[in-house]
Design brief:
9-stranded mixed β-sheet; alpha+beta; 21% helix; 3-stranded mixed β-sheet; 7 helices
Length: 309
């Protein structure tokens, strides 16, 4: 791929919890700003790829173990996951680092996001072509709510307890996360020279672009119902062009209960690099979102149908 790509991915969360910390509450910085980690965004992408039968290395998978006569369901180790998806009998017997690298680059998540592969005798690090920032919530009126949930079952550990157990579900009333991403296909030049990969290709980019548009919407879990893709920006440039974090230049505002608006404050920035910009595409949900169409030469698309708006 002979270009760089910069852009934005926006995630809407309505009465849902896009990315919780260990307390169950939406992640926040020390000043209280709500954010989502890059891993929260990558996970539904990886699940969507896995559902399409792509090789995905860095994702939890389970196996049944028989230990001391007791059957247990356990997550696989990295070594076991590698052996599973690459049909390798024993990673420890694999003497060729080149073969391990070739296999790693066959995994779609590794090809996009890179890898830290720390196994005995094979400590490898691959800086991914796709880098994604933390995504900050742009909606200033977000409120965190805790709902009590009544279980139909009593506590089995207490024989005297006849009451149903209580749980809780923590959600944001509304949040709008904005992530910046950058794609640098030259990240794999060194590995291309080794002959272990063909590099980051147009096909790899197409796979990333597809899941960047709909993977959050497709990821239908209890805590993520209400989370969906609502915005994506793709700016393709010459391969030697560098753009700053575009997420800082995006504003969100409520028009009314059913309508939102995104404002992009990077038209002046992009006009400065007009000669090196190949294309600008903005995808959004036209049913409840307005976009200020101020960026010259931009094409606008429905994020779900990919039809031009």
């Amino acid at each position: 791929m002979k270009k760089r790509v910069y852009g934005i991915i926006g995630i809407k969360s309505i009465m849902a919890n896009w990315n919780a910390d260990f307390t169950g509450y939406p992640k926040t910085t020390s000043d209280g700003s709500i954010f989502g980690s890059d891993k929260a965004l990558k996970y539904p992408m990886k699940k969507m790829w896995e559902n399409e039968n792509e090789k995905i290395l860095y994702i939890k998978s389970y196996k049944i173990d028989n230990e001391k006569g007791e059957t247990k369901l356990r997550p696989r180790s990295l070594k076991e996951r590698y052996e599973q998806i690459f049909n390798t009998e024993d990673l420890k017997k694999e003497k060729s680092i080149e073969n391990v690298l070739k296999n790693l680059f066959l995994a779609t998540d590794v090809k996009n996001f890179g890898a830290t592969f720390a196994e005995e005798g094979k400590n490898l690090s691959i800086t991914g072509a796709v880098q994604i920032t933390q995504g900050f919530n742009k909606y200033i009126d977000s409120i965190t709510e805790e709902q009590s949930i009544l279980s139909p079952f009593r506590n089995s550990k207490n024989s005297d307890d006849d009451n149903s157990t209580l749980g809780s579900k923590i959600v944001s009333n509304e949040a709008h996360y904005v992530y910046h991403f950058a794609i640098n296909p030259r990240a794999y030049d060194e590995f291309k020279a080794m002959g272990v990969t063909e590099g980051y290709t147009e096909e790899d980019y197409a796979k990333f672009k597809r899941v960047a548009l709909v993977s959050a919407t497709s990821f239908n879990t209890n805590s993520k119902v209400g989370c969906e893709n609502e915005l994506a920006v793709f700016i393709e440039t010459d391969e030697n062009q560098y753009l700053p974090d575009l997420g800082n230049l995006v504003e969100f505002e409520k028009i009314d209960n059913d309508k939102n608006r995104f404002i992009f404050n990077f038209s002046e920035l992009l006009n400065s690099f007009k000669k090196s910009i190949k294309s600008i595409e903005i995808y959004y949900n036209p049913y409840n979102t307005e976009i200020e169409k101020t960026i010259e030469g931009t094409k606008y698309y429905n994020i779900f149908t990919r039809e031009e708006v």
